[in-house]
């Protein structure tokens, strides 16, 4: 009689080793709770490239087990679901206690990229939902899924998205829509608002505990520096300021509008986080407001750098009980004012194909931006055509973008005189930084319309394009053209 040998059990979809560093902070920082299940969940899209980077099997993410777990209908073995509490300033006004109102952190998994936390956005009510329903809709989930991957493809620091699942459960926003959950991935989801929460309540032991956790895990060099007389908390504030400055410089160079830069939407790691009413610029308008809810234009494109500094100032105020001296906190913030313009100018020079810094570069950059603004020239198309022009293409398609041809011709003469001798090398470099494909609002809108009919091919096409936006992708040229007239009437708000 032959012996029966049981086959080994398949490894869990998300791996077997979880890390719960944030949960170790204790109950003052979060509430333990399970996600609220959704009826009959289904897969909308999974991010195979990110899955492989995390050491996960993309095919396993298509399984019923993965869909169930990453919708919140089951709790993965080894995870510890929780919603964290934080506070913050919203549209410049202190809003008091906020928190994860529709997001639940499962914990961190060990990956080739280091420990990465998984968070389910849209997974149901939490103690911090306030007047919300704890849900996300298919529309907003697709936007975040594609938006975060578009930013990653462009090289901008960002949270990422592993998966979107959907359900036919109705959710009311401006109209009745259907529910969805997006799995977000980041080393940490700690925000400026976490620090504001404990500082505002004068809970300084918890404030120090949180700061020590973040410093030891993500900013250990702060312990060794002699700057600020060995004050690790001042050094921490300086490093957060510098990371934030570099990130916002990339936003501006890329033409990215966040839309709702509240302090609770600012990552302590200098990552782009919370993709709501975001937009990549079509026509270049420095005053563009992408958030339909932003009546005063607080978060307009050209105001983002100053708002980021304002938010950092709020973080500095929150950390002041640990830093000890106001002068030290102000000194720690000061580097933002040098890092941001330096980083932005370096990125704009790179977009122009200028490898080194020379006198007159700032005037050259400001000159072309003024021309772009005056003619409301399409921002991504201009830079891509300029790249091809430097590589030897004709000038007519570039000049045709401008109403003020004489003004552009004058700028172009100055620019050509500044170009390096090896224009081919410059063009190659420019084509690697000026994308052909940008996640424009109308492209998202078309993919969302298809997805509402259970056709996810548009989502998959955009995911492929935004993950390698500098490639040519023959056959997809229609996704790199000018937006249609109706795109100007798309409205995105804080519910997006």
From TrEMBL:
<keyword id="KW-0067">ATP-binding</keyword>
<dbReference type="InterPro" id="IPR003846">
    <property type="entry name" value="SelO"/>
</dbReference>
<feature type="binding site">
    <location>
        <position position="133"/>
    </location>
    <ligand>
        <name>ATP</name>
    </ligand>
</feature>
<feature type="binding site">
    <location>
        <position position="102"/>
    </location>
    <ligand>
        <name>ATP</name>
    </ligand>
</feature>
<feature type="binding site">
    <location>
        <position position="184"/>
    </location>
    <ligand>
        <name>ATP</name>
    </ligand>
</feature>
<keyword id="KW-0548">Nucleotidyltransferase</keyword>
<feature type="binding site">
    <location>
        <position position="191"/>
    </location>
    <ligand>
        <name>ATP</name>
    </ligand>
</feature>
<keyword id="KW-0460">Magnesium</keyword>
<dbReference type="GO" id="GO:0030145">
    <property type="term" value="F:manganese ion binding"/>
</dbReference>
<comment type="function">
    <text>Nucleotidyltransferase involved in the post-translational modification of proteins. It can catalyze the addition of adenosine monophosphate (AMP) or uridine monophosphate (UMP) to a protein, resulting in modifications known as AMPylation and UMPylation.</text>
</comment>
<dbReference type="Pfam" id="PF02696">
    <property type="entry name" value="SelO"/>
</dbReference>
<feature type="binding site">
    <location>
        <position position="101"/>
    </location>
    <ligand>
        <name>ATP</name>
    </ligand>
</feature>
<dbReference type="GO" id="GO:0000287">
    <property type="term" value="F:magnesium ion binding"/>
</dbReference>
<protein>
    <recommendedName>
        <fullName>Protein nucleotidyltransferase YdiU</fullName>
        <ecNumber>2.7.7.-</ecNumber>
        <ecNumber>2.7.7.108</ecNumber>
    </recommendedName>
</protein>
<dbReference type="GO" id="GO:0070733">
    <property type="term" value="F:AMPylase activity"/>
</dbReference>
<feature type="binding site">
    <location>
        <position position="121"/>
    </location>
    <ligand>
        <name>ATP</name>
    </ligand>
</feature>
<feature type="binding site">
    <location>
        <position position="265"/>
    </location>
    <ligand>
        <name>Mg(2+)</name>
    </ligand>
</feature>
<feature type="binding site">
    <location>
        <position position="274"/>
    </location>
    <ligand>
        <name>Mg(2+)</name>
    </ligand>
</feature>
<keyword id="KW-0808">Transferase</keyword>
<keyword id="KW-0547">Nucleotide-binding</keyword>
<keyword id="KW-0464">Manganese</keyword>
<keyword id="KW-0479">Metal-binding</keyword>
<feature type="binding site">
    <location>
        <position position="134"/>
    </location>
    <ligand>
        <name>ATP</name>
    </ligand>
</feature>
<feature type="active site" description="Proton acceptor">
    <location>
        <position position="264"/>
    </location>
</feature>
<comment type="similarity">
    <text>Belongs to the SELO family.</text>
</comment>
<feature type="binding site">
    <location>
        <position position="99"/>
    </location>
    <ligand>
        <name>ATP</name>
    </ligand>
</feature>
<dbReference type="GO" id="GO:0005524">
    <property type="term" value="F:ATP binding"/>
</dbReference>
<feature type="binding site">
    <location>
        <position position="274"/>
    </location>
    <ligand>
        <name>ATP</name>
    </ligand>
</feature>
